[in-house]
Design goal:
Helices cover 13% and strands 29% of the residues. The strands form three sheets. The chain has a six-stranded antiparallel sheet with strand order 1-10-7-12-5-2, covered by helices on one side. The protein has a four-stranded antiparallel sheet with strand order 6-11-8-9, with no helix packed on it. It has a two-stranded antiparallel sheet with strand order 3-4. It starts with 6 loop residues before the first strand and ends in a 13-residue tail after the last strand. The mean pLDDT is 96. The structure holds N-[(3-hydroxypyridin-2-yl)carbonyl]glycine (MD6) and fe (iii) ion.
Length: 211
């Protein structure tokens, strides 16, 4: 559903079984690429969300080197686990883009976590959309425009909802004001996973064929 400004909203796209299946895949990724606490560039302040990635490239941040994509987990030094086929399939189904996603950022929100208003702009190719998948507790998603002063709207994302950011929304400010603790029973430990699938390089960028 086109909700304006380049934001596309797919409420309840994943049914309960699909959510459970995706969650199991994410848990398997996290068993080899554990969640870590990212630090803001400059200040070194810890972010309130914890992060990991799957796919050939992962988005990371630390105090010294800032926001970037890299091939390896910053704490284990291992390559990121492959992107599960079910996630790649959602990208192929919903993103009209002629190449596969290269990165799936996994954000975990505990009861008090939030995500300040930001734009995702560490990718080379803004013609590719970003696909966001919500699992677990509900979250209040703030959606703005390309300028920080643009008016914002709020959308309550529930487990199984997808959001696609394309066109103007691809470069628009957005964030998570808060989550609603206890609003979903999907995660035994409570909280919320958000997966964002991204293309990092242009469509012709060649990947080595995995052996
Ligand atoms: C979240 N999402 O939903 C945070 N970024 O927890 C994002 O920051 C985001 O939902 C780019 C595209 C879609 C998103
Ligand atoms: Fe974002």
């Amino acid at each position: 559903m086109d909700i304006g400004g380049g934001y596309h909203y797919f409420p309840g796209f994943l049914d309960r079984d699909a959510q459970r299946g995706l969650l199991a895949l994410i848990r398997a990724v996290l068993a080899s690429a554990p969640l870590y606490t990212p630090l803001m560039p400059g200040s070194g302040r810890p972010m309130s969300v914890r992060m990991s990635n799957c796919g050939p490239w992962g988005w990371v941040t630390d105090r010294e080197r800032g926001y970037r994509y890299q091939r390896r987990h910053p704490e284990t030094g291992e390559k990121w686990p492959p992107m599960p086929g079910a996630i790649a399939a959602l990208w192929a189904e919903l993103c009209a883009y002629p190449a596969m996603a290269e990165s799936c950022l996994i954000n975990y929100y505990g009861a008090r976590a939030r995500m300040g208003l930001h734009r995702d702009q560490d990718e080379e190719d803004f013609s590719a959309p970003i696909l966001s998948i919500s699992l677990g507790d509900e979250a209040l998603f703030r959606m703005g425009g390309p300028a920080r002063k643009d008016p914002t709207r709020s959308l309550r994302l529930v487990s199984g909802d997808l959001v696609l950011m394309t066109g103007a929304a691809r470069s628009s400010y957005h964030g998570i004001d808060r989550i609603v603790p206890g609003s979903s029973a999907l995660l035994e430990e409570g909280g919320r996973f958000n997966l964002t699938c991204r293309r990092v390089h242009g469509p012709d960028w060649q990947h080595e064929v995995p052996r």
